[in-house]
Amino acid sequence: MATKLNFNHSLEFEYGRPDLLAPQIARIIANNPSPITFKGTGTYIIGEKEIMIIDAGPKDKSHLEALLNFAKDKIITHILVTHSHADHYPLSYELQKYCNAKIFGHKPDFRDALDDIGEDMHGFIADIEINDGDIIENNEIKLKAIYTPGHSASHFCFELAEQNALFCGDHIMGWSSTVILPPDGNMTLYMENLQKIADLNYDILYPTHGAPISQPNNYIKALIAHRQERDEQILKCIKEGIVGLDEMLLAIYPDLNPALHPAARKNIQAHLMRLIDLGLTENIWFD
Hints:
Layout: E1 19-22, E2 25-29, E3 42-46, E4 50-54, H1 61-70, E5 75-80, H2 91-96, E6 102-105, E7 128-129, E8 135-137, E9 142-147, E10 156-160, E11 165-169, H3 187-200, E12 204-207, E13 213-214, H4 217-239, H5 245-252, H6 261-277
Parallel strand pairs: 4-5, 5-6, 6-7, 11-12
Antiparallel strand pairs: 1-2, 2-3, 3-4, 8-9, 9-10, 10-11, 12-13
Helix pairs in contact: 3-4, 4-6, 5-6
């Protein structure tokens, strides 16, 4: 029986409007909806007078104006980037022109442009390179950097311990499963880091796309089970002689929106690489 993933497609918001989600946590959503970004990039503003910005988003004038308007009586002390995908980081540099904040993040280990889904990781450079466990703080807020490669080799989440909350970027999303696109994405690491987050036992997750995820551990367990079932589907395809990526795609995702086929194809490739890592299939080329 297939694992049931209870995705949440409801989201109360208006583009450009700040929404207070919890004490010291506000969110403004950029107007860049797509099959990959859902309603758009949710930029988090943490703090009251001294604030940190997480995932400033794509280069968009209206979104920049909304962030600056919200921050006009505040001091932006840090600009944090969960990972180097183009819907998360570009506005950081525009925002930086209006404040003295440094950009914190991790340079991508792969600089290939993923042209088939419109990704471009060439442009991200952090002022401050972060490492797993680093503490990032101002006079109001203390965040801990949690390294979670998988969706991207550069992916970090940020823990707000006083609320037992995690800003989880694209590592975990409540509206959809996360796409894993090699070479930047790695399914083996992704699965390991799903369990890493489950073991830290947060009360709430704040993804960059979609609504917050409350009581997340059961949901994470379902995500892990879903991925394991996908592994089994791929092994079944191989056993039946279906070894081409396009043939597997049609067998596994028969009703998928064609706009999502490039991402799904990469996702299958990521699972195949994981199965090779686990020694469950041969290290052969799947075209």
